[in-house]
Specification:
361 residues; 2 domains; single chain; Glucose Oxidase, domain 1; seven-stranded mixed β-barrel; ten-stranded mixed sheet
C-alpha cells in the first residue's frame, strides 16, 4: 500500500498507508470509541462530511457482510484505523474488511496511532483534516483541512435523506418517519413493534405528512448542524399540536429547535457505545450508543412546556426531553443501538404508548 498522511488543521501529521480510494479528501476529524460494530458505524449516514477515527486498535477481525448495513452505502469522507486484521473469523462473514473498503471506495488510512489522534481531538476539540498521499505544500493542506471542518455547516441532510417515500412493514400502527439520514435499525425496531413505517424525505411538508394519515411521527438521526435544517424545523413546528412525535439524535435537536430552544456544538462530541445517561424520571442509569456533535442548550428550553428526561453523566448535557402536555418525546442517544447496548430499546414502547393514548383522546 502507498504511503498516506492525515494532516490536522493544527499542523499535526500522521503517516500511514492509504488504501481504498486513493484521492485527497477533507472533512471534520472525529473519533468513535466502540470496540465492535465497525460496519454499522461506517454505514451510519450521520458521519457524512467527517473523517472517522476508530479508536479500537484492530479492525476487521470478524469480517463484513450484507447483514451489517445501516444505509445503502457509507457516507463518511474518510476512515482512519490503527491496524486491519489479516484474519477473518465469523460464521456470518461474507467478505473481508479490505474488500468492504475497496468495494465502497472508502479513502482509508491505516498504520497510524489512533489513540494519539484521539488525544489531540479530546484536548483541542474536533478539527478539520485531510487524508492525502502527498505532503507537498503543507500550508495549503492545512488550509484545506480548515475548510473541511466547514462542511458541517452545510446542509448534509439533503445528501443522505431518501428522495422518495418508502413503506416498511404492514402493522396496525402507521408511523411516518422523517428521514434525515436514518439508520435502518430504527425502521426495523418500529416494524418489529407491529408498525407500518412510511419513510419520507427530509424536505417533506406538514401537509404531505398529514396526507399519510399517520398515528405518529418519528424524527430520525442524521448528520451535521441542526440549524442547517430550518426547512424541517418549520414543518415540525406546524405539526407539534397535531401528532405524537419521537425525535432521535438529530431528530431530538430539531424537535427542541421547533419548541423554541437552541443548540450548540460540543467540543469533541459523543461517539461510542458506552455513554452513561440517567433517566431523571426513574433515577435509573442506562448505557447508551451515541453519535452526535451538537447538543440542546438546557437553559434555552421553555421550562413551562418541557422537562429534561435524560442527562449525560459524563458532562451533564441534555440527553432527552418530554413535553408536559403534548405527546412529544425525544432522546439524544440511539435506542435502536447497532452497534451498542439495548438498555433503552423500551423507549420505542414508550413512544407507541403515547401514540395509543393520543388515539383514545
Amino acid at each position: 500500500m502507498p504511503k498516506g498522511y492525515l494532516v490536522l488543521e493544527n499542523g499535526a501529521i500522521f503517516e500511514g498507508q492509504i488504501f481504498g480510494k486513493n484521492v485527497p479528501i477533507a472533512g471534520e476529524a472525529v473519533f468513535n470509541t466502540s470496540m465492535n460494530g465497525y460496519q454499522e458505524i461506517i454505514t451510519d449516514p450521520s458521519y457524512a462530511g467527517q473523517i472517522l477515527t476508530l479508536t479500537y486498535p484492530i479492525i476487521g477481525n470478524y469480517g463484513c457482510g450484507d447483514y451489517g448495513f445501516e444505509s445503502d452505502k457509507p457516507a463518511l469522507r474518510g476512515l482512519v484505523v490503527k491496524e486491519i486484521s489479516e484474519l477473518t473469523a465469523h460464521y456470518e462473514s461474507q467478505y473481508s474488511f479490505n474488500e468492504f473498503v475497496e468495494k465502497y471506495e472508502i479513502t482509508c488510512l491505516t498504520g497510524v496511532d489512533t489513540r494519539a489522534i484521539t488525544r489531540i481531538l479530546r484536548m483541542n476539540g474536533t478539527m478539520g483534516a485531510v487524508i492525502t498521499s502527498s505532503l507537498d505544500q503543507q500550508e495549503k493542506l492545512m488550509e484545506v483541512a480548515r475548510k473541511g471542518k466547514g462542511l458541517l455547516d452545510t446542509d448534509l441532510v439533503k445528501q443522505v435523506s431518501r428522495k422518495k417515500n418508502g413503506v416498511f412493514g404492514s402493522g396496525i400502527t402507521k408511523i411516518v418517519l422523517l428521514d434525515f439520514g436514518t439508520k435502518r435499525n430504527i425502521i426495523k425496531s418500529l416494524v418489529g413493534k407491529d408498525c407500518m413505517v412510511i419513510a419520507m424525505p427530509a424536505e417533506s411538508t406538514a401537509e404531505e405528512i398529514l396526507a399519510q394519515n399517520p398515528d405518529g411521527l418519528v424524527l430520525s438521526n442524521g448528520p451535521g448542524n441542526p440549524e442547517s435544517c430550518d426547512y424541517a424545523v418549520r414543518e415540525i413546528k406546524l405539526l407539534l399540536p397535531l401528532l405524537p412525535m419521537f425525535g432521535i439524535c438529530l431528530g431530538h435537536q430539531l424537535l427542541a429547535l421547533a419548541l423554541g430552544a437552541t443548540t450548540y456544538k460540543l467540543n469533541f462530541g459523543h461517539r461510542g457505545g458506552n455513554h452513561t445517561v440517567k433517566d431523571l424520571r426513574t433515577g435509573k442509569c442506562l448505557i447508551s450508543s451515541q453519535n452526535h456533535g451538537y447538543a440542546v442548550d438546557a437553559d434555552s428550553l421553555p421550562a413551562d412546556d418541557v422537562d429534561i428526561s435524560f442527562l449525560n453523566l459524563n458532562d451533564n448535557t441534555v440527553e432527552g426531553l418530554v413535553h408536559k402536555r403534548l405527546p412529544l418525546m425525544s432522546v439524544q442517544f440511539h435506542p435502536e443501538a447497532t452497534p451498542g447496548p439495548r438498555d433503552s430499546a423500551y423507549l420505542f414502547d414508550e413512544f407507541l404508548a403515547l401514540v395509543r393514548s393520543s388515539e383514545r383522546n
